[in-house]
Write a sequence for this structure.
């Protein structure tokens, strides 16, 4: 009886393991397919100048390409940082500034995936953004990391509007798949002067 029960439990464990492995493989394949479709939609955006959904039922579309050269980071930014959108990539907060506008452009991503590489970001790292304007022309913006902070969720000072152009990246903290993420990891970057490699940092621009 004991041996039979042990075999039954072992079979259940094997079945559960197979199901979990299959689910993990499915989720990985789904993420990789979504990435290919988003890339294709971005190329169509550039060619046609019109927002293109990556799949017919998508309620978002790629609006920019985000690169951090030192980290080898290269991802497409989706419009509207909703939970459903952020399952497929980093996304722009609609409450922040638009691309190329004065003010605080805020991009959010998950700590377990899209913004996990921010764990290795450092001051003065270069951040590059390729985006389309309203006339459907492609522009490149370059920023340098001016501040890196770990804050409480109630501290929204880095999400507030700024008088000049700024870029803010936000994710939960700590990184990885720990069950709790009680804090926020913030990267504030400021524009580089064209052709000089120098950054604008106005007095009081970046909170301490």
């Amino acid at each position: 009886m004991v041996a039979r029960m042990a075999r039954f439990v072992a079979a259940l464990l094997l079945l559960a393991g197979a199901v979990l492995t299959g689910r993990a493989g499915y989720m990985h394949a789904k993420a990789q397919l979504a990435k290919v479709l988003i890339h294709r939609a971005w190329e169509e955006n550039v060619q046609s100048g019109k927002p293109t959904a990556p799949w017919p039922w998508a309620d978002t579309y790629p609006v920019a390409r985000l690169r951090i050269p030192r980290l080898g980071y290269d991802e497409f930014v989706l419009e509207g940082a909703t939970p459903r959108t952020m399952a497929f990539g980093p996304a722009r907060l609609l409450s922040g500034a638009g691309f190329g506008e004065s003010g605080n452009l805020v991009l959010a991503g998950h700590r377990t995936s899209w913004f996990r590489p921010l764990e290795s970001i450092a001051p003065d790292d270069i951040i590059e953004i390729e985006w389309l304007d309203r006339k459907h022309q492609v522009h490149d913006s370059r920023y340098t990391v001016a501040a890196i902070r770990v804050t409480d969720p109630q501290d929204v000072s880095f999400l507030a509007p700024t008088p000049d152009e700024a870029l803010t990246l936000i994710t939960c903290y700590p990184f990885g798949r720990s069950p709790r993420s009680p804090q926020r990891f913030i990267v504030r970057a400021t524009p580089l002067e064209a052709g000089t490699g120098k950054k604008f940092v106005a007095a009081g621009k970046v909170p301490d």
Residues 2-48 form the longest helix (47 residues). Confidence is low (pLDDT under 50) at residues 5-10, 15-21, 200-208. The chain has one domain: 30-191.
